[in-house]
Amino acid sequence: MCDRPITERSNQLTASVDVASPTDIVSLLQKCDTEIFQGWDQDGNGYKSLHSEEILQRINSVSEVAATLLQDPLNNAIVLSGCGTSGRLAFMVSRSFNRHLEQQGKPMCYYYSIAGGDKALFTSQEAPEDDPLHGRNVLKEIVRDKRRVLFLGISCGLSAPFVAGQLDYCMDHLDVFVPVLIGFNPTEQARDIPVEKWNKTFLGVTKRLEDLARLGHGYIINPVVGPEPITGSSRMKGGTATKMILDVIFTQAHQHLGILKPSAILRTYELVNSAVYSQSTAIAALLEAAGKSLSAGGHIYYLGTDSLGIVGMIDASECPPTFGACKCFFVVGLTTIIKTFTKKSGRVKETNLGS
After folding, report:
1. Distance between CA 157 and CA 319 in Å, rounded?
2. How high is the pLDDT of residue 314?
3. Is the pTM above the cut of 0.85?
């Protein structure tokens, strides 16, 4: 048995992805993405999948909490937090559901937190990700004067100190917070490495939350979706699963529960996944064209408006730190995209985006 956390292991399905043809790469990715829905249990430990009854029940329970808080959006808050892609997804989802509230004439209730602040929406900011005390302070500032707060901390590998510090703060103040951890490793694989200037580890925080969850004071949503297609790149399967879980939780909450069950909403994502890969030939051709462009010293341009533009921004911002790509290879129309960015009240803070 491998001692390495599942999210950090290599996936045998894509062992040859670096030498595969564009057509074969798409086929390999399809097989790997199937594990998001069907689960992964090569260790034979009975890991929970996204469709397992226990995971679905936890998702439903968090939806119930969210639905209750949404009845008084002015005095309550729902906070989504993460580092890197997890934080960018937190921004995207909070923005989407705030817009839904706004269309109903209701105050916005969703907030996001990302390690490194708004600059991290565009570029990698690694130092703040390792600072649990900074995470705690950011959360305190967001929720001051709020009566009740649902906090969802996202860490695909159960490893980000920034998120751990926030969860720890929530557990110290259960009169205000309902803490939720979202990740994709078994809890015993949470990172057990000392954090600088802190006397706790992510594993210790996770165990504490497990104990509280048994008493109904918090939740851990951690289906195992298997190793990433590109080793350690949790922006891929981990990012997809994160987006699905958040959408299921809040879609159900906004529908006042019971209209669509979590399992039914997840099935729609399976249909979308199948529809995407039904276009494998076109995707392979696009992949080949992108490779030729970069090999010739060209660029990849992401063009899109509103949420689609944000998705392009998220993907482009992750290519340098994840794949070692040169920043100049990936270009997004930021002027157009920034106009679509809204926080709780107004736009993203002005920031020096750098090169």
Report:
1. 19
2. 78
3. yes
Average pLDDT (40-64) is: 91
Give the Cα separation of 203 and 149 in Å (integer).
23
241: which 2 tokens? 């699963």
* pLDDT at residue 333 in the model: 53
Amino acid at 149: V
Q: How far apart are CA 275 and CA 272, in angstroms?
A: 5
**DSSP bridge partners of 300:** 330
Contact between 61 and 214 under an 8 Å Cβ cutoff? The reply is no
pLDDT of residue 328: 55
**First-last CA distance in the chain:** 43
How far is CA 190 from its chain centroid?
17
Contacts with 219 (C-beta within 8 Å, 6 or more apart), sequence order = 58, 61, 62, 178, 179, 180, 181, 213
Residues 6+ apart with CB under 8 A from 223: 39, 47, 48, 49, 50, 52, 55, 184, 241
Quick one: tokens of 231?
């080793």
Span 78-102, mean pLDDT?
Answer: 94
| pLDDT value, residue 336 | 47
199, with CB counted inside 10 A (0-12, 13-18, 19+), is exposed
Stretch (H or E) spanning 150: strand 148-154
